[in-house]
Every structure is written in structure tokens, then in C-alpha cells.
Design a protein that fits this description.
Layout lengths: L1 E4 L15 H6 L5 E11 L7 H5 L4 E13 L4 H21 L6 E3 L2 E4 L2 E2 L1 E7 L4 E8 L20 H23 L7
Parallel strand pairs: 1-2
Antiparallel strand pairs: 2-3, 3-8, 4-5, 5-6, 7-8
Length: 185
């Protein structure tokens, strides 16, 4: 599992949630996590979450930290479990920085009724994919939100890299855990 940090602004509109995103854009082949910063505006035609589509919701943030994870297997349940691992990893990394006020509900993070994250898992023709976005700014969002800026996270991409490293370490640890046990009958 590899990660890449993009230092140039890259806005997210939902079309980035596609197979081989990291390979096409950053030369990163195989299981990967890409981290970048930019605005987020996902219209109905790019929505993956049918609950949001039916509710005619849309996603907008002027400034977000984005994670796109791709694993080359086709198991949606495993992707959802990995998505929740990513969210738990983000929460743990924030707690290391002194943020103790967040709660996790499913695949999202909240401070009371203010939402920090957006997140979705899906399958592509060749892989399972996760997008997670964390508000950096809460300005002009369509729902009550909180941002990394409210927690005084100044090095946003550095924080993203810490999350990516932690996630990659967790995935490697899980793979190694499979190799140390013997079967039972």
C-alpha cells in the first residue's frame, strides 16, 4: 500500500472517484491512498450515495482535505469496513493533536451536530474505492459543519500525510496478521 500527497490544489467534483485515479494522476500503481486539498462541489449527476440523490442533496465546501483510497479487490463490504477504518484513523490522528470533541457515527465525524466529513465507498470495474473529505473551512457549506481550521490544524497536508501513513500501516498490519496464524479444524 502506497500513498501520495499532491501539493497543488485539486478540486473535487466526484469524477475523481474512478478506477486508477492515483495511477493516472500520480503514477501510483496498486493499492493506494491519494491526499490533496481543494474545494468540493458534487452535483447530482456525480453522486454515488443514492440516499443523497433521492433527497436531492449536494455536497459543497470551499476548502477540503481529500483522501481517495483504492484497493484492487471487488468486495463492497470490505470497502465499507476500510472506509470506517479510515474515519477511525482520522479521529485518532486528530486526538493526537488534542482534538477530543469529535464523535464518529458510521462513516462520518461530528462535533455535536456539526459535520466534519463526507465519505463514500463504492466499486469500480476493477477495484473498491473510498472518498473522504474533511472540511478545512466551514464557510458557505449547505449544512452545519466544522472544519480543521476550527481545530487550529495549520499544516493540513501534513495532517493528511499522517493519516495516510497511519492507514497504510494499519493495512500492512492486517495483512501480516493473516500470515501469523495457523488454521484450525
Amino acid at each position: 500500500m502506497k500513498y501520495f500527497i499532491e501539493h497543488k490544489l485539486l478540486n473535487y467534483d466526484g469524477s475523481q472517484l474512478q478506477s486508477l485515479f492515483a495511477y493516472k494522476n500520480f503514477g501510483l500503481m496498486g493499492d493506494s491512498i491519494s491526499v490533496f486539498r481543494g474545494s468540493c462541489r458534487v452535483e447530482q449527476n456525480e453522486m454515488v450515495d443514492m440516499e443523497d440523490v433521492l433527497a436531492k442533496d449536494w455536497i459543497y465546501s470551499e476548502d477540503m482535505l481529500h483522501f481517495i483510497v483504492e484497493h484492487f479487490d471487488m468486495d463492497l463490504e470490505k470497502a465499507i469496513i476500510r472506509q470506517r477504518l479510515l474515519i477511525a484513523t482520522i479521529k485518532e490522528e486528530l486526538e493526537k493533536l488534542g482534538v477530543k470533541t469529535l464523535s464518529r457515527s458510521g462513516d462520518d465525524l461530528y462535533e455535536e451536530d456539526k459535520k466534519l466529513s463526507v465519505s463514500i465507498s463504492t466499486l469500480s470495474p476493477v477495484s473498491s474505492m473510498i472518498h473522504c473529505g474533511l472540511n478545512v473551512s466551514k464557510l458557505n457549506t449547505p449544512i452545519p459543519t466544522i472544519g480543521l481550521g476550527d481545530f487550529r490544524i495549520q499544516d493540513v497536508l501534513g495532517f493528511g500525510e499522517s493519516v495516510a501513513k497511519h492507514y497504510c500501516d494499519e493495512v500492512l498490519s492486517m495483512r501480516l496478521a493473516r500470515c501469523k496464524v495457523r488454521g484450525v479444524s
